[in-house]
Design goal:
41% helix, binds nickel (II) ion, 8-stranded parallel β-sheet, alpha/beta
């Protein structure tokens, strides 16, 4: 009964330091058939690569997160590393990449845009999908996706249902995670309502965004069952239909066989 495909996880996070490999090794028994561990820096991407080499059901994405933009003199070295890792046979996407305008002390917007664009171009050059992070930056994200037309997913989707329709028109997928289960989740619920089942990806973003009743605690990939249950309730479907769609969509987008 391995049917959960977690399209977005961070098992390199220090929250897993005490029991990382024990936990990863328990996932298959909890129904998890595949995990994509996303990179945020050259170091975390390299760690994600090591997980993918160690475990047959782990894959990874290579990328620089908008919160980890290097200083300009490091640009070339960092980009070279991301590019090299992206060519690994178990690298299935460029990510996570995008824009994050939430923090006032974050990298300047021009620098975030510069890095997002060059990683979009890298993904297109390598024929890889992208895993996009969008926090408080909806308009710029949409404009750049329209410009570069990558394959991929907008993960932990936080935009409006109208923006979701724009993303779908570009042929991309929408990633939904624990946020749909939160009590105050109005937008994600409306997005889930209008989302065709063949464009849904399921994800955790663990250790973050654990679904209710684990909100605020450390998440792991098995908790996708709870997220799928909520999406099923919203859409009037069975949980196993939602899990199956999430799995099949991820396999098709990332070129993975489970
Ligand atoms: Ni993430």
């Amino acid at each position: 009964m391995e049917y959960i495909f977690d399209s977005h996880a961070h098992y390199d996070d220090e929250a897993f330091d005490s029991d990382r490999f024990e936990l990863i090794e328990s996932l298959k028994d909890k129904g998890v058939c595949a995990v994509i561990n996303c990179g945020c820096t050259p170091e975390s991407t390299d760690t994600a690569r090591s997980f993918a080499e160690k475990y047959d059901f782990f894959y990874f994405a290579s990328g620089i997160h908008p919160e980890n933009i290097p200083s300009p003199e490091e640009d070339e070295k960092v980009f070279g590393k991301i590019k090299e890792l992206a060519k690994h046979k178990k690298c299935v996407a460029v990510g996570e990449i995008g824009l994050d305008y939430h923090y006032e002390d974050g990298a300047p917007r021009e620098r975030q845009i510069e890095w997002f664009e060059k990683q979009l171009i890298l993904a297109n050059d390598l024929s890889l999908p992208v895993i996009v992070h969008d926090r408080d930056s909806h308009a710029d994200i949409l404009e750049l996706l329209k410009k570069h037309r990558p394959k991929g997913v907008v993960h932990c989707f936080s935009g409006s249902p109208e923006m979701a329709q724009e993303v779908l028109k570009l042929g991309m997928y929408i990633g939904l995670g624990g946020a749909v289960t939160f009590k105050n989740a109005k937008k994600p619920v409306r997005v889930a309502q209008g989302l065709p089942l063949d464009r849904l990806l399921l994800e955790t973003d663990c250790p973050y965004m654990a679904p209710v009743p684990f909100r605020g605690k450390r998440g792991d990939s098995s908790m996708i069952a709870l997220t799928a249950e909520k999406i099923a309730e919203i859409k009037g479907l069975r949980t196993d239909e939602v899990l199956k769609a999430g799995r099949e969509n991820a396999c098709s987008l990332f070129g993975v066989k489970v």
